Amino acid sequence: MYRLYDEYIDRDFSSDYWSDEGISQAALILIKFTDDDWDCLAKSCLGKSEKWGIRCAETLGDTEGSKAFIVLLQLLKSERYDVRMAALDSIRSLVESGTDISAGVQEISDAVIQIRVSESVDHVVDLVLVSLQKKLVHMK
Question: I want to staple 87 with a disulfide (CB 3.0 to 4.6 A). Which of 9, 57, 94, 133 is the partner?
């Protein structure tokens, strides 16, 4: 299943198709993942393209569970700003759906602070980061 997912999210889709259909289709593949597939995803996600990393994060935000969260924590280590932002946005979605992220609260808080300090963030991004920070404060 990992290979199918890897190839699927790496395809050339229009941005409209990806947001309307692609994310849901990729999430359906993730539902069928075994523990080995999840391990492979967590180990390989940082070596992929920026587009792939963003798409991976977007699909994980629609996937409940600790395995998705572990991969998102890996994506937070990306050197690419847009991948880290997509991972933070998906983590925010997981929090809203009730996923327990307590094991990574400090790591997430550090990533939010790092982005807010080191990047020139626009108003919308800042709102997402502030919203996530408020949720994290209540978990500490």
Answer: 57
φ/ψ bin of 65: left (φ > 0), alpha (ψ from -120 to 50), beta (otherwise): left
The tokens for 86 are 């997509």
**Cα 115 to Cα 121: distance, rounded to the nearest angstrom:** 8
Residue with token string 């979605």 = 93
Question: Burial of 2 by CB count in 10 Å (0-12 exposed, 13-18 middle, 19+ buried)?
Answer: middle
The three-class DSSP label of residue 17 is: helix
Over the stretch 81-108, which tens digit does the pLDDT of each residue have?
999 999 999 999 898 888 888 888 889 9
